[in-house]
Amino acid sequence: MMVEIRWHGRGGQGAWTASNIVAMAASYEGKYVQSFPAFGPERSGAPMLSFTRISDEPIEIHSMVYNPDIVIVLDYTLLSPGIVQGLKKNGVVISNYVGTPESFLEKLQIKKGDYRAIITPASKLALEILKVNITNTAMIGGLLKLGNIVSWSSVEKAIRERFKGPVADKNLELIKRAYESAVEV
């Protein structure tokens, strides 16, 4: 079985870093992985995509993810109907969002039940814990809420490999708090 994830963020927010961390975590569990961005010469802050593939079998596909199982949105200002374009039936949208479930669904122009949706206040938590609005690792907390993509122990190992000392500790705290705050809408 293969899981394909499409990350929506802005340049400089760390969407590709988060994609890499999830791929690293899955590789520790013996999975085959891919992680790659799609951006050109855009400036910092421009919308960009990143992709993660996780599979039990070798991955033969070498293209962008057009029909993801999961869409992760790091920046709530990117929420629009285009976010769910190509999302598979029974797919999941995980987003940084503070607001009512109804307003979230309205921004995507979907109805409850069209897709699974999980929201977490990633910006609020990142500002509180990291003191900057970098939501990439917080969104991994939302992904962990699904329970079957990667384990907490593998994510912790990947975070400690990617970041060192207090930076790793703060990112792990952010992931944990985002996980605890994540709700399905």
Q: What is the third-level CATH name, the topology?
A: Pyruvate-ferredoxin Oxidoreductase, domain 3
Biggest sheet: strands, sense, closure? 7 strands, mixed
- Class by helix and strand content? alpha/beta
CATH superfamily: Pyruvate-ferredoxin oxidoreductase, PFOR, domain III
Strands in their spatial order, largest beta sheet:
2-3-1-4-5-6-7
CATH-derived architecture: 3-Layer(aba) Sandwich
Number of strands: 7
Per DSSP, the total helix count is 6
CATH class: Alpha Beta
Whole-number count of domains: 1
Share of residues in helices: 25-40%
Strand content: 15-25%
Any idea what the radius of gyration is?
Answer: 15 Å
Q: Can you tell me the overall shape?
A: globular
Would you list the SSEs in sequence order as H and E? EHEEEEHEHHHHE
EC number: 1.2.7.1
Catalytic activity: 2 oxidized [2Fe-2S]-[ferredoxin] + pyruvate + CoA = 2 reduced [2Fe-2S]-[ferredoxin] + acetyl-CoA + CO2 + H(+)
Protein name: pyruvate synthase
GO molecular function, one term: pyruvate synthase activity
